[in-house]
Amino acid sequence: METRSFADYLRSLDDAALISLFAHRPDLISPVPPDVASLAIRATSAPSLARAVDALNAWQLQVLEACAVTPEPFTEKVISALTDKAALFVIPGLLERGLIFTGKDGYYVPTNLREVLGNEIAGLGPETMAKLSLKKLEDAPPASKKVLDAMVWGPPRGSVSDIKKPSVGVEWLLKENFLIPFNQKTVLLPREVAIHLRGGKIHRELLTSSPAIVGENRDEKNISLAAIANISTVLRWVEELLNFWAQEPADALRSGGLGIRDLKEISLHLGVDESCAAFVMELAYISGLLTIDPDDRILPTTNFDIWLTLSPSEKWQRLVAPWLTTSRLSGLVGKVENKNIAPLGPELDRAAAASTRTLTLKLLQEIPNCEPNFESIYKAALWHRPSKRYGGLQGDYIAWALREAEWLGITGQGALSKYGAELLDGAELDSINQDMPKTVDHILIQSDHTAIAPGPLEHEVAQVLAIIADIESRGGATVYRFSEATIRRGLDHGKTGDEIKIFLTKTSKTPVPQPLEYLITDVAKKHGKLRVGSTSSFIRSEDPSIITQIMNDKRLDVLSLRQISTDVIICNMDSADSISLLRSCGYLPAGEDSRGTLLSGPRIMRAQSKARPPRIIGEVEVPDEIQLQGALRALRTGEKSTHKQSTLRNIASNALGSLPRTTANETLEMLSDFLQNQPTKSLSIGYADNNGLVSHRIIDPLKLSAGSLMARDHATGEITSFRIARITGVAAL
Amino acid sequence: MSDGPLIVQSDKTILLDIDHPLSTECRRAIAPFAELERSPEHIHTYRLTNLGLWNARAAGHDAELVIDTLIKYSRYAVPHSILVDVAETMSRYGRLRLEADPVHGLILVTTDVGVLEEVIRAKKIAPLLGARIDNETIVVHPSQRGAIKQSLLRLGWPAEDFAGYVDGQAHEIALKESDWKIRPYQSLAAEGFWHGGSGVVVLPCGAGKTIVGAAAMAHAKATTLILVTNTVAARQWRDELLRRTTLNEDEIGEYSGAKKEIRPVTIATYQVMTKKKNGVYAHLDLFDTHDWGLIIYDEVHLLPAPIFRFTADIQSRRRLGLTATLVREDGMEGEVFSLIGPKRFDVPWKEIEAQGYIAPAECIEVRVNLTEAERLSYATAEPEERYRYCATTRTKRNVVEELVSHHAGEQILVIGQYLDQLDDLSETLGVPVIKGETPIKEREKLFAAFRTGEITCLVVSKVANFSVDLPEATIAIQVSGAFGSRQEEAQRLGRILRPKADGRGAKFYSVVSRDTIDQDFAQNRQRFLAEQGYSYKIIDADDVFQGKF
Lengths: 733, 549
Prior knowledge:
heterodimer; A: five-stranded antiparallel β-sheet; B: seven-stranded parallel β-sheet; 39% helix
């Protein structure tokens, strides 16, 4: 009847205690259980307990182990005797998490917990049924002592050749019930004996506090400098990656993700190693800046265009926020044993990724201005997450988290930067905007046909330069090189030689060298000799007078016509639009097929589909205050209503018939009134579905926001959003 | 954010803003470990290379110093990855050492057995090694000293060479600074070389590389073999050595096509060294005939392949390479460094110019329009004939004539590639021509007459590209060249860079046919000089005729 007693215990809890239980174990309210009995079942189920145990640190786990091996009911005193006085500070925490609970005469442990903790908790065997006189142990013959010594710290199993013919030492122990025969070849050391031999303790070594993290101290100023450099670099990487794919989209592999050749290409383009390139793409992917189109092309999304307009701190935040919570691990790419794992592919999710990352950052927070030594931060992390489930804590994950934090500028020179700290505290990140190197609006052109932007260039200037020059070197500054090919590219993009010259004269702080001017003039001159332009449509006629007439027709100004010879005009609108406009003005144009229409220059493309950042697996979202409150209220109501469920239904169905129809405004008013004055009241509403069919719902309103009502639907137990406009009427139950 | 003159880029280039007040100080600080790549007007580009960092280690600079310097002068935060990389690269140096062992001879010793195990398994290295003495030591055949150093360098585990140099046969040589003084950069270069043991000194044309050689000899005080490009250069070296050092005529020998003298200081030409007799290089023995204490390679960028190979075998002798333009269109710069030694001294041309040791020069590209008929024949010419055709058009002749008459009274060199063109010009201008077939005596006579001002204009072929010292030449007119050769352009400019007695500037004209490959090649040729900060001015042939330039 254990669940019953656990449920009784839960019922005895006040709101604060329940809320703290939910906060510690968010899986309990996802979805919200209908009543306390269900909650108790869920809370004592092995998977849920395992999750809760995973979140314990080594010391909490030791105390919990002590609880689990102690006969119930037990008291704090017993536990602190078995471990350490410090356990007294830990027990309330275990209680809060529902890992132990109070019942008659003391504390109890949910039965499943023992299963979760393993068969031989703390290396202890089962309790014996027999009466023991532990004093006799002191008189044990030496051979038996040897056997005991070998078994005392676990494992509690010992092999014997044949239980029927035990050795002298074992025989004595068996006789005295200090060993329990288990099967033909195995004996067990009873728990009481082991604890006695362990000196009344459970653990050989008590892990009451986290091992100290050591490392190299860094100068705060240098950390900030390094971090801001990292931030500006990572923003540049993302931008360059996406600009690259905007022009030459990569194709995803059939099995998903990006091929190794494309990865190499990107790593070359960005000038970073492959693991860093994989990280940058994953970063863009999880933040919704790129997506894989249904035709398997990997393209930037429209979010990227928005992102480009943001301030550096906002840009950074958009990248870092999803990184903090993602379950994807770009570090898996390119590991020797994972040859087939491709970036952007389906195999990068790991359940422990986000929690390990969060833990790593938390540990960094504890050591300001210090670059931790990996071994020591790993040891500390192991203390915080001693659980061995799923292979235990992965050192790689920590190493990757540290590496990626550095790439992102959360750390600088390995130590948490002020930006990282602000991010983790949820503070404003304006300091990034202030600390980013000032953008420059000029370049220095030199006579060797290079131009140097001595700092990050303003976006517009950089865009023009990227067209008329090749980038030779990237970093704090950018080195551009002009050549015939790049000038031609500029001309291809519709700039004229004069425009380029004017742009350069305006942008360059130094006089434009004469050879460069000549180069531009020469290329422009040659460029003009063959007329290749870009246009959407053309108008031609064998009658020049019509052409002249069209050119002079004011009504056609919108077409921005340009006459390119006596019988051809080009215009910027597509042929369909030009034709319809010409028709409306009384001309009689006939369409020609599109051959001869030339498009020049690379086309910037965007994904057709919406951004679909990958889902986060394995982690239960951390609930906020409103959700917690909502869950609590739902539970309370559920509890109240379980026994009168049927009555409620009756009331409700009756109510539907009599529910007065209200307009949206009236509904809103009524709802906000309920929320304000009777927030705990369950309501009965009529709700129209897509087809206009009105169904009846019983809900607990939680919050009104932007035309909808957040409420817990009794039918599903889930928190749902109801559109106000569709609520046909409201009544209190 | 500090406001330093340096910007460290993520591709390991370093940009130095030379208009910054700290730029000179900063340049000195980074010179030991960063290699100067380009030095145009405003921003100089340096590069962090493994070789450069290892040389810095060899010269006693540690990673911490390099990192501190970068951080100190950097305008923006230095990318962390670069700092890590610098530290890692520099820590690779010195794990392997070449030492002279009294018992075993040349040995390779390591402080890191893992590294030794790695390198002895490398295919290129294994054949060069002898018996393993113990865990950390292995014998190397002395003749393979150069080869093993080269291969180790390629593997990324450079060996620190403690085996030392042979001193060679001692011979007293000293500088004789009675009527002249060695310039500061020259003695710096010579010292830089001497402390490094072997290596290359890069100085602009006309900046007095011979004197660096002489100073190096004065450091070595030993018998010296000097390898030069041609006989005229050999004689100039001899004259310079006689003037600048305590050596007398009997101590200096010439080893060329004409003479085969071997003296304590012997000057040999590359040509004779690479001459084959019955399929073997008959004169390479010269390297062994004497216990040379120093070998000087003049114009080391022209070092021919056989000498390359031979040089690998004489790693125990001190080697000094001299050049103005360490660019090879064949991309063999790396080989020069690994065989002769790393770059020990390099300074931007414009800096020497600013100090007044070379004449300021103005580079002018004169664009000539082809006539309609010429355009047509150019367009229809065979591809391999095109350059020759457009480089030697008649129209160029008129322009050259006009330029020569404009600069009448000044010392003018007209330089070209094609002999018919040169003969034609010589006839038109009424001046002598020097080309490959001109006998050495005749050449020397003409050069001498030019130096004294007896002749004011000379037409020369590529024989005068290098090592011809014509101090008073102020005008050079280039009509054609070896396609897009960057170093030829620079060397030709070098002919007129000697500082003039009256401090006049020099003018370098390059006559180019517009809208032909001549123009494209010209652009490539100008690159080296442009990177050294020489800004070309482009003018039209018509401007020349109207005297508007």
